[in-house]
Amino acid sequence: MRLPLKWRSVAVALSLACGLALLVCVPAAHSQADDDLDDYGSQEKAEFYWSRLRYTSSYEMSGYGYGFGFAGWSRDYPKADRQFLMALKRLTRIQMRSTEQVVSLKSDMIFNYPWVYAVQVANWSFTDAEAKRLREYLLKGGFLMVDDFHGTNDWQRFMAGMRQVLPDRPVEDLSDSDEIFHTLYDLGERFQVPGEQYVNTGRTYEKDGYVPKWRAIRDDKGRIIVAICHNMHLGDAWEWADMPEYPEKFASMAFRIGLNYIVYGMTH
Amino acid sequence: MFATLFEFLFKYPQAVFARGELVLASPRPQWMLWALIAAAVAGLAVLVGVRHRRSPLAAWRLAALWLMDSLLIALLLLLLWEPSIAITELKPRQNIVAVVIDGSRSMGIAADRATREEQAVAALKSGALQRLGELYQTRLYRLGAELTRIRGLEELGPPSAPATHIGSSLEQLVAETAELPLGAIVLLSDGGENSGSLPRSALEALRSRHVPVFTVGFGSPDAAHDIELEDASVASRALAGSRLVATVTLRQSGFRGRKPRLSVSEGGKLLASREIALEADGKLQREELTFNVGAAGSRTLEFAVEPQPGEQNRANNTLTRLVSVVGEPHRVLYFEGEPRWEYKFIRRAAGDDPQLELTSMLRTTENKIYRQGIRDPKELADGFPTREEDLFAYQALVIGSVDAGYFTPAQQQLMLSFVDRRGGGLLLLGGRQSLADGVWGGSRVAEALPVVLPDAHDTFQRVPATVSLTPAGADSLICRLVDDPLANTERWRKLPYLMDYQDPGRAKPAAVVLAEMHVPQHPAMPLLITEAYGRGRSAVLATGGTWRWQMSLPLGDNTHELFWQQLLRWLVADAPDHVVAAVSEPLLLDAAHEELSAEVRDATYLPAADAHVAARVIGPGGTSSELDLAPAPNAPGRYQAQWTAAAPGLYVAEVTAHRGAEEIGRGTVAFRRLDGVAESFHTGQNRELLEQLAASTGGRYLEPAELPDIARTVPYSQGGITVRQLKELWNMPALFLLMLALKAGEWLLRRAWGVV
Question: Is any Cβ of chain B less than 8 angstroms from the Cβ of A55?
Fold first, then answer.
């Protein structure tokens, strides 16, 4: 049965209105969320700030949450970050801010936070200015830890972004004896840390990332400036550490790796 | 002219009145003279008083006439008592007068178409020597590095002696003539004493023999057109690759306003140079030169100012200095109480400096310490050192954000001894648990700190602070980011803000504040404060946020690294080793004698009074010799020996100390002998020295034109064979003229007043 003309018109008008509203309101909602995440002006001062890198994804979407507007940089945010901070506070003498923050490459404020964490980096891309800033950040003494990207395709897309920043530096596999695995805990023996999917599937891998890769990029003095955790999902382990079904051994390993990486970044 | 007139009026030369004693030679009692004078004066007064009633003159006029008559009568009475001068004179033909002529190279400088030596010879030949010879036995000597007797002026030869040692030469002369009647010394010289001043022993030797020295000065005090380097002050010891600042002092005449280049070079290689503007004639001018001292070894630096056209003496445009550059890395122990960014970036800065070996301990957890830069796994495995041998193996100690209570009292005492006795450098950084917030003010280390910490809590604030240099900081190498001092101050002013600051309290009186912090609504606070303490040094850097300079300045900007490397180098640079060798003169200018010494300290840096200390000296051409150093009296741990540098060149002495079979340590020192240099400097007449020599010995300074009359001045000496003479004064023309003046004056006054 066909609707009368006037009801069709109303339906079209309503659809258009909804679409317009989405175009206006969703970015507005995201802007608000963005403002919530731009917390440089936080009053709590500390030596260490857990700084998650927000980047422009290669899908040119930026946002927070799942579903429409989902962007990779915020995967597991903020619970993973918050739970990790609890471990940091409990297990080290690092004086840190109790809440996480988000940093971006759009301003020089990032230089005030020499340790940064980024996830889903297969999705990242940089403008020329952002790539230059990240490069300077790393070469001046900043430290970047990347996590939660899996398989061959993700690796290639990650490297596409990385080559914008550090086109001249090789990526190498870290050995068990590397200092980064012994700064706080001795992590000579490690295993793949899976994401939450392990609970339901029993799989430690995602996509074709069967084997965990502990990799790094070094500066001219041999110091690690980019620590690459490929084929693992540490963020999920931190996020779901309080979930009874999620194995403790994975959560413990993930916390230890994170703590070691932070201590390394603060000592090298 | 004046001397002639004086002698005409007073019958005798000035020296007679200067050295003689006024006496009354008459056998009549002196009281009679005063009584007669009193009676005459009183009688005249009565006479004047009686006549005053009848006299048309006013009282004051009568008094004036009375005074003049009284003086005349007193003078006449005085003459009756035979006034005389008693003076000691050399007996003619029974004394020796030594005529010493300076034969050093500076006497070869020409002025008025004749060299100084030629002028001296001409002055002697003008009759002075002959007249002296008529009254005394004259002996001629040539003065150079040593004194040489010559038979006649023809044996003088050209002035070629490489050095002048007036004092020691005169001392030699006095010693050689100890058994002879030396009446006086006449010294013809420009006063260019290469040792700088007259040795006290020489003056005492001359005074003890009562031998006056009559000095005749040649040459003008300043060359008309000359630039002379007076001094170049630079550290005698440095770490390889260090930047040094040398302060060069110079003086010029005739080139005001010119802009020559001042440079420093080593082995012909230019290290640094810059243009300077010459200031007023004769003014002492100080200029700085900053340069990198280069690799390890004994460095002979040459400081030079560019010669100017028309400059008379170019040899004094260059000065040589020795710097001992140490190549072994110096060890720094850094204890940090919590992971923080300052730690990371300090490690990175130190890691780029091959002269620094940074060993660090970081409390990562309550019970874990992360060690970096250790030489072997056992080093510091038990925590912060508790034994002197372990801590004293480092040259500097850096304490980060850790409270004093973490260390035991014994460890705190150890830190104090580290600075005081070992001579190490101590640096405390700002932080949450540092300085006052870490209760360091109540610790044993507080005594060594350059500040008095505030009696407060929460002195550490994570609030941005800007920085600036103080005037002392502008001069300090620690804070020198660029060579030009003004540009350096500006560079500091523009540095990114610090991430935090801590109130360090106030600087102690002997401390130096090099930099300050500025926080809104707060007065300026000291940021970097340093102080020498005991044998070592201490510093406070009241922030944990300099790392922001590294992260905020452009990529490739080395400000942060440079600052930290210079600060750490300052901490370690002068930390002594177990054996510290030294010489009395790093540069021997036309001299050979050297005193070698060594300070020897054992493993705990206590003086080792029972060591066997030996030196091996390697000289020019690879010559090598060995000698033992003997313990110095009243100085435990100090050993010394004499050495003669036989030839010009570089000498390196390696000193080794043993206690039994065990080696305590080694030290090296270098020195250089330079010949033909001394005479090129201070070539102007040193009139002050010549006048001082004459005045100290009872002689007199004479101009060359006065030399022909020297024979009339020399006799009045107490040296040699003398006789006491009475010189009559009653027939002095001056006295007759005075009496005539009194009488004529009285008559003129009477006439003027109408009573004649």
Answer: no
C-alpha span between A126 and B675 (Å, rounded) = 70
Q: Which two tokens stand for residue B463?
A: 């609030």
Q: How many CB pairs under 8 A join A and B?
A: 84
Enter the DSSP assignment of B654.
E
Q: In chain A, helix, strand, coil percent, each to 5? A: 45, 15, 40
One fold for both B92-221+686-720 and B226-326? Answer: no
Q: What does the radius of gyration of chain A's CA atoms come to, in whole angstroms?
A: 21
Largest CA distance in chain B: 124
Give percent of chain B above pLDDT 90: 60
What stretch of H or E contains B22? strand B21-24
Q: Which residues of chain B from 537 to 576 reach within 8 Å of chain A, CB to CB?
A: 544, 547-548, 550-552, 554-555
Query: Crossing angle for the helix pair A151-165 and A128-140, nearest 10 degrees?
Result: 80
pLDDT tens across B590-643, in order? 788 899 999 999 999 999 999 999 999 999 988 899 999 999 998 999 999 999
Instruction: Give the whole-angstrom CA distance, residue A98 versus residue A46.
Output: 9
CB interface of A with B, residues 154-183, below 8 Å = 183
- Name the amino acid, one letter, at B480: R
Per-residue pLDDT band for B194 (boundaries 50, 70, 90) equals low
Helix count and strand count (H, E) for chain A: 7, 9
> What residues have CB less than 8 Å from B6, skipping those under 6 apart?
B13, B14
B330-573 maps to which CATH number? 3.40.50.880
Question: What global pTM score does this model have?
Answer: 0.77
Tens of pLDDT, residues B410-442: 999 999 999 999 999 999 999 999 999 999 999
Q: Is the dihedral of CA A222, A144, B370, B430 positive or negative?
A: positive
Structure tokens at A97: 């801010």
Residues in chain A with CB shorter than 8 Å from the CB of B338 are 47, 93-95
* pLDDT of B181 strictly over 50: yes
Across the interface, which of B338, B370, B555 has its CB nearest the CB of A94? B338
Structural tokens at position B442:
């109540």
Q: Quick one: A42-265 is in which CATH superfamily?
A: Domain of unknown function DUF4159 (3.40.50.12140)
Give CA–CA dist A258/A34, Å, rounded: 26
Question: What topology does CATH give the domain B226-326?
Answer: Immunoglobulin-like (2.60.40)
CATH T-level assignment (fold) for domain B92-221+686-720: Rossmann fold (3.40.50)
- The domain locations on chain A are 1-37, 42-265
Cis peptide leading into residue A78 (ω within 30°):
yes
How many CA atoms lie within 13 Å of B147's alpha carbon, on the beta-carbon side?
22
Could you give the CA distance from residue B666 to residue B614 in angstroms, rounded to a whole number?
10
Asked if A215 and A265 count as a contact pair (C-beta separation under 8 A), the reply is: no
Q: Half-sphere exposure (CA, 13 Å, Cβ side) for A142?
A: 26
Q: Which CATH number fits domain B579-678: 3.40.1360.10, 2.60.40.1930, 1.25.60.10, 1.10.3720.10?
A: 2.60.40.1930
How is A114-172 classified by DSSP, letter by letter?
A: -EEEEE-GGGEE--HHHHHHHHHHHHHT-EEEEE---HHHHHHHHHHHHHHH-TT--EE
Which residue would you say has higher pLDDT here, B330 or B105?
B330
Pairing state between β B396-399 and B356-363:
unpaired
CA distance B331 to B115: 59
Closest by CA position to B496, among listed B465, B541, B529, B521: B465
